[in-house]
Description:
single chain, alpha+beta, nine-stranded mixed beta sheet, six-stranded antiparallel β-barrel, about 40% helix
Amino acid sequence: MSISPKFLSGSQIRQTFLDFYAQRGHKILPSASLVPEDPTVLLTIAGMLQFKPIFLGQRTAESPRATTSQKCIRTNDIENVGRTARHHTFFEMLGNFSFGDYFKKQAIAWAWELSTEVFGLPASNLVVSVFREDDEAFAIWRDEIGIPGDRIQRMGEDDNFWQSGPTGPCGPCSEIYYDFHPERGDNIDLEDDSRFIEFYNLVFMQYNKDAEGNLTPLQNQNIDTGLGLERMAQILQKVPNNYETDLIFPIIQSAAEIAGIDYHNSDEKVKVSLKVIGDHIRAVVHMIADEIRASNVGRGYILRRLIRRVVRHGRLIGIQGEFTVRVAESAIALSEAAYPNVRRREAQIKAELAREEAQFLKTLERGEKLLEEIVDRTKQQANKQISGQDAFTLYDTYGFPLELTQEIAEEQGITVDLDGFEAAMEEQQTRAKNARQTIDLTVQGSLDKLAETIQGTEFVGYAELSSLAEVEVILVDGKSVEEAAAGTEVQVVLNQTPFYAESGGQIGDKGYLKSGDNGDGLLVRVDDVKKESDFFVHFGFVERGTLRVGDSITAKIDNSGRRRIQANHTATHLLQSALRKIVDDSISQAGSLVSSERLRFDFNSPRAVTAEELQKIEDLINSWIAEAHAAEVAEMPIALAREKGATAMFGEKYGDVVRVIDFPGVSMELCGGTHVSNTAEIGLFKIVSEAGVAAGTRRIEAVSGQAVLDYLNVRDKVVRDLGDRFKAKPEELPNRITNLQNELKDTQKHLAAVKSELAIAKSDQLLSAAEELGEFKIIVAQLGDVDTEALKTAAERLQQKLGNAAVVLASIPEPDKVSLVAAFSPEVNKKGLQAGKFIGGIAQICGGKGGGRPNLAQAGGRDASKLQEALESARNLLVEGLG
């Protein structure tokens, strides 16, 4: 089999690779999501990541050999994107894998066959590297493949020992390089990327690295390889860099067309910006397709950062309006054959881009003005360095990523104080932490010390509403005490408790700690419970008796409150399931609050939920309640829970064994909270409101059970009160109110007309008082409390009647509100006086601003006491300008 090396499209290279290994017993598997299952890695950075459990011996492979085309994201060297020939944030890694089947000899032989016989690369253009201690790989290349020893380079750990992260599978590797200039001779320096490009990496996965850096042999010897699709495309398509391959260049061309420029005729700076746009748009399209949404943390922050870099570089090449959606269309079209989900998620991709771009353009307009001032100020300084505090203000107040500030600073030849930025960031985090502190630091310190002598609290509240317990710790004002008398606020730690501690959005239980059967015994009211480390801390007040360490007490929760909380918590699960069914199956939880009175559910969504959808959601949840679905609660390994389809909350940390709340056919989630045993116990569900709380995040507030009756009673009272006032039945109220609104509008229109006529009448009296300045006439006057529209009408009318004139009128329509209008004839404009600029300057005297057209403009102010001064200034400026 031989293919001419003259040209292969990116799609052909991908398919050729997969077919080659499929013919050699490898199962073709789909690309994994960019959101990895591995909690130690934020994004999928390599083809092997989905096979990591197999390499570690935690999971059995479906097939001993596999091959994939894996989409990857790496942002560790984002500053090199567009500046070098082959750095990317998004790239595709073609891989072949062996799980304890073949090893070095076969992997090397197939890699060589594919490179030389299938892709047709001349052997004289190829150089290989091996790990400095890997004599076996060196011998295979030299003795069996036949590569001269001087074209096999031994390299160190940094270059030729591969690992997926700080811990995990790793091993020595061997890389194949393409030599663009073999005519330069045998003086081989693989660091010279103008001559050499590494395109194929063969990793001999032999070890597992632990947190201390120790290497232990894996159960099997495995093969993990990666061939860079973009790099092979550059070689076979004979273009100077990866960006000019057919995998990326159509995206660059679409951006260039929007900017009205030609890539090939552009200078290097413009080309860099176009390359950044081409690379980053590919990345964000696939990230959003894999259900990542922009935010200020984790993957969402990376997505937001990439989108903002695209917008920023679009501005640098002259694009002023919104453009990312149009460029994304090119990326979707290029990717949909290999990755159909990008077309399926097209609407979400475009909505997320449009929203983020619009939001950032507003941020840019505000932040760029401040940054321009900062840059100008910094250039005057000796060290030419933007302070960390200034950089943090841009980040914290205007949403400017630090990297963007650095980029713009670099363009101006200045730097940013990174240490100062980090210090400002830490100060803010400390302030935020202190602001939300739920337990005194002294309390935490006491618990830390006591942890050495007592065990953590055992929670028995899933099955029991009260339990016997022993008092292990009493804290008063953060200090450990042996006893606390009546009238004392305390924090109490028990050896076991039925009280649920605030977690996962669910508030802590309320209730009592007591001893004795009569009314004279100990009674501690518990108002809240929080979990600190392994301890449940009961926040309470000793109402009677004396609480002592070592006491045996009964811990009893408020049954009614617990039932309401359980109903609301289960309702949030049903709500998430209903949202996915009716609005968008990619919706995920972004936060929640579950109390006894209500529930609040935050979720990621690119748009508002319509009133019709809200009604459908409410109806569906109430139908599930009526159908009386029984809960099935089980603990199981997290892998099994995910396999069963259980929903996990993004960002939540889960252990190896998780608790699964399953209402079969309705909802299944990982959850440690308390729930009803049957949906019928919820009683009823009612949505109270739906609103946006942040970009891409919506919030639904709702009530369930008894709280629905409370909610409806309040509204019923309001309706009855309105009925009494308007002498109307409830069903007649909408029409009655609409009629009143229409009457009010008519009255307001009539009043406005009367005011306008009054203003005209008043203004006509000013005609005789017009001041003559040569060929011009001017009027500067105040018209009492006339509103702005009437004032504007009067000014226009006066100017038209006077002809060649300048009219400035003012009024005080409300206390502490000034209205100003200027009407100038064309001849006045020719004298250099523009109504918009003129009235804006006058308004500043009254603490206001405004503007408009050269012939007619209006402004407002807040300081009525300065109005006379403003009018005198207006007259003086007109006399000076027209005299």
